[in-house]
Specification:
mainly alpha, about 0% strand, about 300 residues
Length: about 300
């Protein structure tokens, strides 16, 4: 009877020991499953990071508006390429690490099925979990650092105006330049009108003064011979002054005519240059369209 009790107690002890081992294996599998899920999440985050890097590269390729902006973006492109290379190395490392963990899980299951010592098995599981958690923490820190680098590059890229913004700025500056030139032309026209009217006023004042002088001295001057000679000399001087004034006006008119002819020549040259630029722009647009079609064909191929 006592021997049966001892045998029964030993059987219960072995069953409890086996249950403990099963529970430890279950906990280990759950921990490994959690670790695998965390690794999948990290892989998904890395995939999202790669997509963001691809979008940044496409955004950089679209910013071909200004040479200065392209020169600023070149080191950013180099840094992105370096990050992609490091990302590829880390992805390979993660895949190898995952395969290693799966192999360790399979090895632990085989050991448990063969009746491996539960204490050693538990210690191995604890060590593997500690190493995996440490690696996971380091990977999270590295991904956080790379995310900060990507955000910094995105902010630098956002500070550089894109092609549509540059076109809008150029259009606005052209409108302001045309408005300023129109105001300048109107101002010059008003000043020229004012000067012409002022000159006409002076001539009319002189003419009025001359007529008043002739009217007041004509009766006295016509009586004597000396008075008539003085009146004739005075009229001749007035005629000479008028002729000099007319010559001066004609010289100014000739200068204005020359300036007008020069402006016409410049306008004709500008129109010819505009037509040439328009033809070059059309040729460039057609070349860009052909290049886009060829690139799309090569990408699809």
């Amino acid at each position: 009877m006592e021997s049966r009790l001892v045998e029964l107690n030993s059987t219960e002890t072995s069953i409890e020991h086996e249950n403990d081992e099963k529970e430890e294996i279950y906990i280990a599998r759950a921990s490994i499953a959690k670790l695998s899920a965390d690794l999948d999440k990290e892989n998904e985050r890395k995939a999202n990071l790669l997509n963001e890097l691809k979008q940044l590269r496409e955004k950089i390729e679209n910013k071909e508006g200004a040479n200065g902006a392209v020169q600023k973006l070149m080191p950013l492109l180099e840094s992105l390429k370096g990050m992609e290379r490091r990302e590829f190395v880390m992805q390979s490392y993660y895949d190898a690490k995952k395969s290693k963990l799966e192999a360790e899980v399979c090895e632990l299951e085989d050991k448990w099925e063969r009746g491996w010592d539960s204490e050693k098995l538990y210690n191995n599981l604890e060590c593997a979990l500690a190493n995996s958690l440490e690696n996971l923490t380091s990977v999270k820190k590295e991904l956080a650092g790379r995310l900060r680098e990507v955000m910094s590059i995105k902010r630098k890229i956002d500070d550089i105006p894109i092609q549509s913004e540059l076109i809008q700025y150029e259009r606005r500056l052209s409108e302001l330049n045309a408005h300023i030139q129109e105001k300048h032309r109107q101002t010059r026209k008003y000043y020229a009108t004012y000067n012409a009217l002022l000159e006409i006023k002076e001539l009319m004042l002189k003419e009025t003064s001359l007529l008043n002088s002739i009217s007041s001295q004509f009766q006295d001057a016509i009586i004597s011979t000396d008075g008539r000679m003085k009146l004739i000399n005075s009229m001749e001087g007035i005629v000479k002054g008028s002729q000099q004034k007319l010559q001066k006006v004609q010289v100014g008119l000739q200068e204005e005519q020359k300036a007008c002819d020069a402006l016409k020549k410049r306008y004709a040259a500008a129109m010819a240059e505009q037509r040439r630029c328009y033809s070059l722009l059309k040729a460039f647009q057609s070349a860009v369209h052909c290049y886009t079609l060829i690139s799309a064909y090569l990408v699809d191929a």
